[in-house]
């Protein structure tokens, strides 16, 4: 049962990332990598906004009965993203082309019919 | 939008105005942060404020909320910032209109949006008066504390919704009526009446003198002789606090949270009886953020230390400064504060660890060494500061019960109290121009020249006694103070020979009773 739920959440997360990616590409961002993983953790999206390399955390919630997605992003989560990002900058050559970095968040709320109810984008949350 | 709300922080017994700055930003990742050296209790205000606002049917802003408590370098503690923070947030999102004039907000929130009893409201009212603030908003449960302060409007708040309605002018809250100090009366219901205590006439007389002049008492006697009972009956013969004293005591009680919900000024003299395991900090006061101890809670009242030698040596010796100066200065890394501690000490002890040294009927089982060790706790400097030394012997079995047909001729507490009140009246008249002197024991040596009024014979007797018994200079002055009280009890303006003689009797006894290591061997027990 637990296992099943985990698969479900995983799938939902992927859906959210897709929505966020499309949303940001429309905004003029360029995709570098999706779901970059190292031993510290995972970054949902790595994109560029003009000359800034942006690490993006995506949160998706179905209905806000159990709190808003914003509440789920706390200090711990942000510092984890930062640590993964540091690893990315050291390990991957892409990072060397950029001088400025940023951590952003995209919060998505879906209604019961899996339609996007709202999508909020927050710049520089660190 | 940025909003500023005023509140206070307390440092020792002083209030300091705090500006609570609340910013609800349109931009930025939503969050809730408090800065300005906030303690854990203030930090937790976040959750209380958020939930209380939601439960008051108002949407909590999904925005970046930043709170600053200025001045930022002063450490802030306590739950009293819940109300100013939530008022600031509500004002920022346009749910509430802040009053035009400067006003103080103070109080702890409950999760349902109602306000809880919060300590320190009395201090808030005093500071408001000092700073010329006209309106204060405080929890209804604590509002009575503030109602005795003149010149300010006290608004008792039940919950956030009522406050919003009041500030928008929709439904006004009536400010509390100013209460006169004299109108606040408390029932005095001591555990024992003096009439219930049989025998021990000498001890009763000494306690009456102590109550009248605020002198320190030391009682020594075997277990079960009535030391504790006598002390517990003490509140029944103590006069109520005067207005000036009442303000001093209420301040301490308000800050330590010792005023019950709905309570107002303290009118009854404090009677504190800490257990003998009380630590030095608990007794004297202290902590990294200094708080008053039992000696300050007993300010203007009685500090009863039962089983005196069982207290830690550190705690007992630390009593020296407050006993002499009537205050405690506590210095810690965070700063130094001074708490008043003008109390009347009643100490009770057994003559030795087993309790029966010198008892005519029962043998003492202690070794000389044990007795010496026990008596070591009763150090000279402490005993020197105690004016009335009493022996409370075991009561004869024939006096223990009053028969059904016999009349209890013992004096009632009320009768004794009336005499005490009369002598206090004389003292109040005498010290009406002095700010810090309320009773004979508070007199400084310089006051004695003016007020002692010794007759020639009395002076002679005093000098002879000092020479004969080798009394210290401090004891000399203390003897005069006790004699002054005895004279006041007799409504005599002069201190006569008899008054000195009675005062001496309470002092000299202890000098004779001094335990000598060879006494036990010689069989010449005191």
Overview of the structural elements:
The complex is a heterodimer of chains A (126) and B (526). The longest helix of chain A is centred in the N-terminal third of the chain and has 26 residues, at 2-27. In chain A, 37% of the residues lie in helices and 36% in strands. By secondary structure, chain A is α+β, with helices and mostly antiparallel strands. Chain A has a five-stranded mixed beta sheet with strand order 1-2-3-4-5, with helices on both faces. The termini of chain A are far apart. Chain B is of the alpha/beta class and 526 residues long. Chain B contains 21 helices and 18 strands. Chain B has helices at residues 40-43, 45-55, 82-92, 121-131, 140-146, 160-167, 201-213, 227-232, 243-255, 280-284, 294-297, 313-317, 320-325, 368-376, 380-384, 413-430, 445-451, 456-469, 473-489, 497-513, 519-522, and strands spanning 2-11, 14-25, 31-35, 64-70, 103-105, 108-109, 115-116, 135-139, 153-157, 217-220, 271-272, 285-286, 291-292, 302-305, 327-332, 335-340, 344-349, 388-391. Chain B is elongated and about 85 Å long. The chains are: A alpha+beta (126), B alpha/beta (526). Chains A and B meet through loops of A and loops of B.
Which two chains have the most extensive interface, and how many residues on each? Answer: A-B, 6 and 4 residues
Low-confidence stretches of chain A: none
Average pLDDT, all residues of chain A: 87
The main sheet of chain B comes to: 5 strands, parallel
Number of helices of chain B: 21
* Content-based structural category of chain B: alpha/beta
Shape of chain A: globular
Question: Strand order of the main beta sheet of chain A, please?
Answer: 1-2-3-4-5
Q: Please report which band the strand proportion of chain B falls in: under 5%, 5-15%, 15-25%, 25-35%, 35-45% or over 45%.
A: 15-25%
